[in-house]
Amino acid sequence: MNKSITRLALAVMAIVVGFGTPAIMAGTASTASATSWPAGWVLPNHHLTPGAHGHSFAQVCPHVSAALENGRPSTAVKNQVYAAYHITYHPYGRYEIDHLVPLELDGSNGKANLWPEPGLHNKKDALENKLHTLVCTRKISLATAQHAIVTDWRTAYVTYVGKP
Fold first, then answer.
1. How many domains are there within the chain?
2. What's the domain range around 42?
């Protein structure tokens, strides 16, 4: 099947089923891999959410610093993220503004690190917790964990947590 037709079909399916928007679906790594993930396991649009983070092991280990934790994005910033993704209707439970690089990995609270993840429950939580543990026990570097989650959090999930 033609790649443009496949992408169009995925975008239409995302709108009809409610798992995302074309702006979110545009960030999928490839149409072939996009169809093998559970519903709602999409990537952010990397032009809008490239990921942003610090480089401080001390900010996240053994626990996330209070400064990071208390700096969660405001409603105004969340609304700017929705607007960037062309989402005008976002009732409770349809999306969660999520950090691409989580606070547990020194992720930023800025718009470059935020995206509207479909659904209410963060599918990345288990991965975020696992990577945080691996970083804090020095089994992988903070940079490696950040790179894995920015590149494709779904692939990182399979690598570090296992099949969904």
1. 1
2. 3-160
